[in-house]
């Protein structure tokens, strides 16, 4: 057991260094946009330790709307706090800095949990607790290193692997005559013509770091278009299994979207009520690739994605009808075309 | 024996890929803060000397490795 404890302690020290490095990077980035003399460190500590309480699920009816309310309140407050701290940053930069603070929160939480189980196992001499922790450490360290890499990406505004959905729809819209407008918070719609069909793209606005509210966007578009919508396609990054190639593009049915489930629920609900088929296109990547700067194999999958989207629209949607293509993901480093 | 601070530059940095509007050649350079995909930049094309280019991609170049089939 002492060997396991020593091994766990070594990894915990490494986690602590990563946590401190990410915190230092975050403070340095926030300081650049904060007023002189502002105590960035203590305000960041407050943000790192802040929490969100899930809604009560004993009576699950209506829980999606309660969850939406709590999550929206949290996101708005978090962004406001970062905006107040970094008063010299513009709107786009504030969104990217908010993502950076979230990365710092993520790694800080991992460190706290591992430290908790280490100290608890040591205090109670519980070999099973220590053993379980030790067995999980390689995967935990991989995620911690990914968060570390991600902090560099967000501090400089580099696109990450999770943004592949947004990149694909941005390229689909590039160079075309279109109408662009905001439909929900941090979410835009681009309407254009595609081979006689009305193509409506829903995506997070960039190049600041945000995922937007695509569920709300798709719902409003369907309500506005009425019965003319004949297909909804969602494009997102998906977790691959070990041994699979990154950047592989696969098709399926359903709503390809992550998060708390609120956006997924909204799209499924409106599609079911209107009888609109839901097609999904997923790009395989690992959890590390999703939050670190985009790799070549993922970036180069955009052309394959567009080929599949265009083929599906031509096959499944008749002329004069509407198709919605939602590019899901974080728009950091991806501009509006 | 004693864990040291991880070096700041151990992570691969992405490259910014630019397309010249004039001669349509694709060039690349190291990423710099402020770059984003679909940004139009006023940088000189190394081939034709034109002053207008479009950022078409920002990603980490991967080494070509021979993979064992499993």
List keywords for this structure.
heterodimer; A: 337 residues; alpha/beta; Rossmann fold; 11 helices; 7 strands; 55% helix; B: 70 residues; mainly beta; 4-stranded antiparallel beta sheet; 29% strand
Please describe what this structure looks like.
The complex is a heterodimer of chains A (337) and B (70). Chain A is an alpha/beta fold. Chain A folds into two domains: 2-156, no CATH class; 161-327, Rossmann fold. In chain A, 55% of the residues lie in helices and 15% in strands. Chain A has helices at 2-33, 40-48, 63-85, 91-124, 127-156, 164-173, 214-225, 262-274, 287-291, 296-299, 302-316, and strands at residues 179-184, 187-194, 197-204, 229-239, 249-253, 278-285, 322-327. Chain A has a seven-stranded mixed sheet. In chain A, a hairpin with a 2-residue loop joins strand 2 and strand 3. Chain A is globular and about 70 Å long. The model of chain A has no long low-confidence stretch (mean pLDDT 95). The mean pLDDT of chain B is 84. Chain B is globular and about 35 Å long. In chain B, strands 2-1-4-3 form a four-stranded antiparallel sheet, with no helix packed on it. Chain B has a domain at 15-59. By secondary structure, chain B is an all-beta fold. In chain B, strand 1 and strand 2 (26-30) form a beta hairpin. The chains are: A alpha/beta (337), B mainly beta (70). Chain A binds chain B through residues 10, 13-14, 17-18, 21, 148-149, 152, 156-159, 167, 170, 174, 206-207, 243, 292-299, 333-337, and chain B through 3, 5-6, 11-14, 31, 33-39, 57-62, 70.
């Amino acid at each position: 057991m002492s060997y396991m404890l020593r091994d766990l302690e070594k990894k915990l020290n490494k986690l602590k260094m990563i946590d401190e490095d990410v915190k230092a990077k975050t403070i340095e980035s926030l300081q650049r946009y904060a007023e002189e003399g502002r105590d960035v460190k203590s305000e960041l500590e407050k943000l790192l330790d802040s929490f969100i309480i899930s809604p009560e699920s004993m009576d699950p009816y209506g829980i999606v709307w309660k969850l939406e309310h709590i999550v929206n309140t949290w996101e708005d407050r978090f962004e406001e706090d970062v905006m107040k701290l970094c008063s010299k940053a513009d709107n786009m930069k504030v969104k990217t800095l908010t993502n950076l603070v979230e990365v710092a929160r993520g790694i800080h939480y991992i460190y706290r949990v591992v430290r908790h189980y280490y100290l608890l196992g040591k205090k109670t001499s519980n070999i099973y607790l220590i053993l379980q922790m030790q067995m999980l450490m390689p995967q935990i360290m991989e995620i911690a290193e990914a968060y570390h890499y991600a902090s560099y990406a967000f501090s400089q505004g580099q696109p990450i692997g999770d943004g592949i959905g947004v990149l694909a729809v941005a390229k689909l819209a590039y160079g075309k005559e279109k109408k662009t407008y905001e439909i929900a918070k941090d979410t835009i719609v681009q309407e254009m013509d595609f081979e006689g069909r009305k193509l409506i793209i829903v995506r997070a606005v960039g190049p600041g770091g945000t995922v937007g509210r695509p569920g709300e966007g798709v719902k409003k578009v369907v309500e506005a278009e009425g019965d003319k919508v004949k297909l909804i396609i969602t494009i997102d990054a998906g977790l691959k299994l070990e041994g699979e190639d990154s950047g592989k593009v696969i098709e399926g049915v359903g709503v390809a979207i992550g998060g708390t489930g609120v956006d997924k629920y909204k799209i499924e609900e409106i599609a079911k009520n209107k009888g609109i088929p839901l097609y999904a296109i997923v790009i395989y990547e690992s959890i590390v690739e999703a939050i670190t700067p985009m790799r070549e194999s993922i970036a180069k999958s955009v052309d394959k994605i567009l080929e599949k989207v265009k083929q599906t629209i031509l096959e499944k949607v008749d002329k004069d009808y509407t198709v919605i293509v939602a590019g899901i993901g974080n728009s950091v480093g991806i501009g509006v075309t | 024996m004693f864990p040291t601070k991880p070096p700041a530059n151990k992570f691969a940095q992405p490259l910014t890929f630019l397309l010249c509007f004039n001669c349509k050649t694709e060039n690349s350079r190291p990423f710099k803060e402020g770059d984003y995909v679909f940004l139009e930049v006023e940088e000189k094309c190394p081939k034709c000397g034109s002053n207008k280019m479009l950022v078409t991609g920002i990603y980490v170049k991967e080494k070509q490795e021979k993979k064992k089939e499993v």
